[in-house]
Amino acid sequence: MQRWLYMLGGLLVWAVHFVGVYVIASIGDVVSSADDPTWRLTGLAFSTVCAAVALGLLVQALRRADDGTDTIDLGNTLARFGALLALISVIWQTLPTVVGY
Fold first, then answer.
1. CB-hemisphere CA count at 13 Å for 3?
2. At 17, is the secondary structure helix, strand, or coil?
3. Among 10, 15, 19, which Cα is nearest to 52's?
4. For tag attachment on the chain, is the N or C end more exposed, with fewer CB atoms within 10 Å?
5. Do the Cβ atoms of 85 and 10 come closer than 8 Å?
6. Residue spans of alpha helices (H) in 1-101
7. What is the pLDDT of residues 55-81, one digit of tens each?
């Protein structure tokens, strides 16, 4: 199970970020308005944490030592790709919060 979490960690961070930002925007829209600075800063802080976690997973996956053979380690490749995709996606989904609506 630990190997699966390692390989899919980046995609899990992306999924949590997607749901979390949606929940924050929905609550902000119900309470006041979604473009209220308080809710935008909350979403930005949450996105920053998710991006830091994705970056940490990417660094961990890149530091994993290869065993020196010419074979491709599928687990490390999936972990690297998933973490990189998560980092790019979190940044992309955060841009509307930074730029404004």
1. 5
2. helix
3. 10
4. N
5. yes
6. 2-31, 37-63, 74-99
7. 999 999 888 866 566 556 888 889 999
Q: Torsion-angle region of residue 72: left (phi > 0), alpha (psi -120 to 50) or beta?
A: beta
Q: Angle, nearest 10°, between helix axes 37-63 and 74-99?
A: 160
For residue 47 the two structure tokens come to 């996105």
Q: How far apart are CA 50 and CA 37, in angstroms?
A: 20
pLDDT at position 101: 61
Residue in 8, 3, 7, 25 with CA at minimum distance from that of residue 93 = 25
pLDDT digits (tens, 9 = 90+) for 16-30: 999 999 999 889 888
User: What proportions of the chain, in percent to the nearest 5, are helix, strand and coil?
Assistant: 80, 0, 20
Q: 100 pLDDT exceeds 90?
A: no
Residues 88, 97, 22, 39, Cα dihedral to 10°: 140
Helix orientation angle between 37-63 and 2-31, rounded to the nearest 10 degrees: 170
Planar angle of CA 92, 60, 58, nearest 5 degrees: 15
